Amino acid sequence: QVHLVQSGAEVKKPGASVRVSCKASGYTFTSYYIHWVRQAPGQGLEWMGVINPNPSAAGTTYSQKMQGRVTLTRDTSTSTVYMELSSLRSEDTAVYYCARGRTTGESNWFDPWGQGTLVTVSS
Amino acid sequence: EIVLTQSPATLSLSPGDRATLSCRASQSVRGYLAWYQQKPGQAPRLLIYDASYRATGIPARFSGSGSGTDFTLTISSLEPEDFAVYYCQQRSNWPLTFGGGTKVAIK
Lengths: 123, 107
Hints:
heterodimer, A: 123 residues, mainly beta, 0% helix, B: mainly beta, 7-stranded mixed β-sheet
């Protein structure tokens, strides 16, 4: 069974960085893209970026809005993808989700999703 | 950026009713539209992809239709577990974008 398990909640001060992990299991890690989507409290969904976990292929695509502040990386030895967001501001307070592409290769439908990680930015 | 507009914002219905949700794109997304269901405190779940294909394990009461700029998600007969928020999403152009959501509430 496919599972994406994310790291726990974080509280950060404005200007700091946060790193959230997403550990995959139940499938071939390098065959499926991993996306990141966030959801501010009471709001809708916002796509942040995608990474191809295959180390022999081109790596990442980011939302222009997030470009320069978000970095996606992968560790194939532990089947884990990391999302780092820098220069945090209060508007970055949100639940951050990782989600796998539905099929192998470049797939931009999200299925399944991780359980979500709440990141709170507060002074 | 492609903007997806969902309507209505809230749909108040009773169990057994038929639900019709709309998603309109600011430019054509061809057939590259998906629908997700989100319940409170949970991650979204993929229901429909490529406008009309049900994801694995999704009941047949959920159906999707449309192409170009106008899409519809239909729930033929609402079950108690279907009361939730529904989002559409396009993958035709970068960045990938979502609609603002439709809440299906119990009347």
